[in-house]
Amino acid sequence: MDAPPERSAESTPPGTGAADVPPGAPAETAPAEVAVVGAGLVGCLTACFLARRGHAVTLYERRPDPREAGAERGRSINLAISERGLDALRRVGLDETVLKAALPMPGRMMHAADGTLSFQPYSADGRRAINSISRSALNRTLLEAVDALPGTRLRFRHRLSALDPDTGAMEFATHGGTVTAVSPVILGADGAGSAVRAQLQTRPGFDLHQEYLDYGYKELTIPARGGDFALDPGALHIWPRGRSMMIALPNPDRSFTCTLFWPHRQLTALDTPEKVTAHFAEHYPDARALIPDLAADYALNPIGHLVTVRCAPWTVRGRAAMVGLIGDAAHAIVPFYGQGANCGFEDCVELDRCLAETGDDYAAALALYESRRKVNADTIARLALDNFVEMRDKVASRAFLARKRAEHALERALPGRYVSRYELISFSTVPYADVERRMARQRRWTAAATLTGTLTAAGAALGAGALLRRWRGPVTPAARSRGSRPAGRR
Ligand SMILES: Cc1cc2nc3c(=O)[nH]c(=O)nc-3n(C[C@H](O)[C@H](O)[C@H](O)COP(=O)(O)OP(=O)(O)OC[C@H]3O[C@@H](n4cnc5c(N)ncnc54)[C@H](O)[C@@H]3O)c2cc1C
């Protein structure tokens, strides 16, 4: 039986028409009413930003409250947050709280099959770090922040099952039956498999492209050893093995979460404890020794899928409602640049900025937000796919490490003029698409500088050659073909 609507929103139009409001500042007119579907990382942060603007936000989540239920098995346990994510958290005053529970990783530690280790710092000065953070702890911190803000309501165990973008009517499956609600603004922050997006997909002209990798991921645990970390906690560990790889990030409880990124066929081929143990003994011998429950963990832990989602439009304007997509719902990417959540957090900052610029007019703000963010999301999606090859294969080569060292030397020699892509993606908030434009410019001028250097060297060599010839006399064609100097000038 249908429960009565939770809230009638007929009296609140999509935009409040408030005067220009700086980011984070509360709207001065009647609060806009917004439903955010999905209380994951991005949905919670979106709710924080909107509530700080004075908007009334209801957050709907299909799961039980994670503060009571604990972490969900099969989702990545920890993730790396870098400057883009921190910048967003800073704007709502949460960066320090989050960083207190984080472990900085200033570089990568590569594990060769023979156990040789090589460390490669992420930044030229070796000081900047990405931060290993527990996904569930971050989610809990964000939920607490939403809960503490006035005008917010949390609705757990509410799975969106239907949505009419024209009217803003929503249906949720709950333990007590179907619950309906109406909102003039609905934001889909419900992840890569977004139900909100699925509802928009039925409209003519909605474009959806999902690219599944032929790879899956599986998590394993390296527990603390004698109360301490079994590996250096100041690094993101990588076991590059050509077509596949394993990574490990440290956790505050001194364990490491390992993630295997393997072709699906390889993941399913290890179907007995003996096969698992033998495979690890051959390809990951140093890690094998550190995972006591390897075979059991391997059998028990689920295989996750890796997908890139590109869709358009992110915003649909119905007759009486606006629907927008944010975070993975709009642009899920593969995790190989550690940017999915960082990028989703940047969406929240941009939406807040657009609301400020448009006087909290959601129709205008969402259109502006999409026009600014789509190109950046497409860029990081491509870079994340490219980076998989770098992580699983290239980092193992000496030539690659030498190139990275040369790049860092160039960055130190030309501070601010030459900056690596990794630095700009992970340690700045330069829009992703601008990073690529800058990379193209840098490539042009380093190529020009190399060419100038080569030409200068060649010019000097030619000049020296001409002097020599004047001294030695002309080279005859016959002598040139013999490769010898003219007779009599030896
Ligand atoms: C293995 C792996 C490693 C990663 N590592 C990193 C990393 O190092 N750094 C990084 O920045 N990113 C990383 N990511 C990406 C990051 O996890 C995502 O980009 C991020 O979680 C997206 O947040 P989100 O809130 O948009 O979606 P989600 O985190 O998926 O949250 C969506 C929420 O919506 C809820 N929901 C779904 N459907 C419904 C429905 N019908 N009704 C109501 N609620 C619903 C879900 O329960 C969930 O709580 C990684 C991803 C993977 C898979």
UniProtKB/TrEMBL annotation:
Cofactor: FAD
EC number: 1.14.13.9
Regions that span the bilayer: 445-468
Catalysed reaction equations from the record: L-kynurenine + NADPH + O2 + H(+) = 3-hydroxy-L-kynurenine + NADP(+) + H2O
InterPro entries reported for this sequence: FAD-bd (IPR002938), FAD/NAD-bd_sf (IPR036188), Kynurenine_monooxygenase (IPR027545)
Domain (FAD-binding): residue spans on this chain: 32-380
A single GO molecular function term of this UniProt record: kynurenine 3-monooxygenase activity
Region (Disordered): 1-26
Its job: Catalyzes the hydroxylation of L-kynurenine (L-Kyn) to form 3-hydroxy-L-kynurenine (L-3OHKyn). Required for synthesis of quinolinic acid.
Protein's recorded name: Kynurenine 3-monooxygenase
